[in-house]
Amino acid sequence: MTMTRAYRTAITTHIDGKPYVYGYDLTKLAGEASFAKSIYLIVKGEMPDKNAEAMFEAILTIAIDHGVEPASVVAARNIYSGGSPVQAAVAGGILAFGEYHGGAIEGAMETFKTYCPPAGLGVKKLVEDFSKAGKRVLGFGHRIYEVDPRTQRLIELARKYGFYGKYVKFTKEVEEELAKGGKKLPLNIDGIIAVLLLEMDFNPKVGKGIFIIARVPGLVAHVVEEALREKPVRRLSEEDVEYDGPRPRK
Ligand SMILES: CC(C)(COP(=O)(O)OP(=O)(O)OC[C@H]1O[C@@H](n2cnc3c(N)ncnc32)[C@H](O)[C@@H]1OP(=O)(O)O)[C@@H](O)C(=O)NCCC(=O)NCCS
User: Fold this and answer.
1) CA of 82 to the centre of ligand 1 (A)
2) Which three-class secondary structure state does DSSP give residue 230?
3) Does the CA dihedral 200-203-204-206 come out positive or negative?
4) Angle CA(98)–CA(104)–CA(107) in degrees, nearest 5?
5) Which residue pairs, CB below 8 angstroms and at least 24 apart, start in 112-116?
6) Which of 72, 126, 136 to mutate to test the pocket of ligand 1 (most atoms within 8 A of CB)?
7) How does pLDDT run across 52-96, given as a tens digit for each residue?
8) Is 97 exposed, middle or buried (CB count within 10 Å of its CB: 0-12, 13-18, 19+)?
9) What pairing do the DSSP bridges indicate for beta strands 12-15 and 18-21?
10) Atom of ligand 1 at shortest distance to CA of 140?
11) Cα-to-centroid distance, 186 and ligand 1 (Å)
C-alpha cells in the first residue's frame, strides 16, 4: 500500500545524516561549487555546464542593484525608517516587484514562447495583439535608458557563452517593430533575463524568483545603509507635495 504524505519534494533530503540537494552532497557543494552554480542547481534541478554557469552568474550579478531610486528600494528604506525590522523592510522591497519593475520576467518568457518563430506567431502578430489589447509588451521600455547598458552587456556575454539564439534574435526584431510606433522601447533588464532563461531552457515559473534572488543582496545593502547612516522616520517635506484637494470649507 502506498503511503500518502503531507508534502512531496525532489529538492533536498537527508541521507545518512547529511543533506543532499538534487542528489548532490550539500557539504561538498560548499567549497566546490559557486553560489551561482548552486542556485542554478536548486531552481532547475540540474548542474549547469561551464558556459551556462558563467551566463547565469552574469545575469545574477548585473541585476544586483540599480540605485536608490527604484520603487522597491524606496519602499524598503522607508519601511525600515519607520522602525520595522530588516526582514520586514526587505520583504516590503520585494513586494514592490511588479509588472512594471522587476516582476515582468515570467510574463515576458510566456509571451516570447508564444510568439517566437518557428513555432510561435511572429513579431508582427505580437505587436498587433498587444496594441489591440492596449497592453504593454513585457520586457521592453525603460524610464531612463534608450539603450539599456545591462542588456547590451548580457547580449555580448550571450555571444561568448553560446546563448545567442532564436529568442535573442526575436526580441531584436520586436524592438525594431515597437520603434515603428514612434517611441524607442529598448529590451530592458527583465526582457533580456527572460530571453536568456529561455535560451537556457528554464521554465517561465522561475522568472520572478530569479529577479528576487538577484536583487535581494541590493535590498539588504540599502536597508543596512539606512540603518547605519540615517535617522528614523523618513518624511517628505511640504515642498515635495502638491496639494490639489479642497480648500477649508464649512
Ligand atoms: C518600464 C516602463 C514602466 C517604463 O516606462 P516609461 O519609459 O516611463 O514610459 P511611460 O510609462 O511614460 O509610457 C510612455 C508611452 O510608452 C508606452 N510604452 C511604454 N512601455 C511600453 C511597452 N513595453 N510596450 C508598449 N508600449 C509601451 C506607454 O503605453 C506610453 O504610451 P502613451 O504615451 O501612448 O500613453 C514601461 O516601459 C513598461 O511598462 N514596460 C513594460 C513592463 C516591463 O518590461 N517592466 C520591467 C521593467 S525593468
Assistant:
1) 32
2) coil
3) negative
4) 120
5) 112/139, 112/167, 112/170, 112/171, 112/194, 112/195, 112/198, 113/198, 113/204, 115/170, 116/166, 116/167, 116/170
6) 136
7) 999 999 999 999 999 999 999 999 999 999 999 999 999 999 999
8) buried
9) antiparallel
10) 23
11) 10
* Complete domains list, the chain, with CATH: 11-47 (no CATH), 105-203 (1.10.230.10)
For ligand 1, mutation pick of 66, 185, 189 (most atoms within 8 Å of CB): 185
Grid coordinates 541521507 are at which residue? 15
pLDDT tens for 2-45 read: 678 999 999 999 999 999 999 999 999 999 999 999 999 999 99
Instruction: Give DSSP secondary structure letters for 83-146.
Output: T--HHHHHHHHHHT-BTTBB--HHHHHHHHHHHSTTTS--HHHHHHHHHHHT---TTB--SS-S
Whole-prediction pTM: 0.96
Residue with the nearest Cα to atom 10 of ligand 1? 143
The best mutation among 115, 140, 210, 211 to test binding of ligand 1, ranked by most ligand atoms within 8 Å of the C-beta, falls on 140
- Main-chain dihedrals φ then ψ at residue 187, nearest 5 degrees: -60, 120
Q: Residues lining ligand 1, CB < 6 A? A: 99-101, 104, 136-143, 183, 185, 188-191
Q: Percent of the chain having pLDDT more than 90?
A: 97
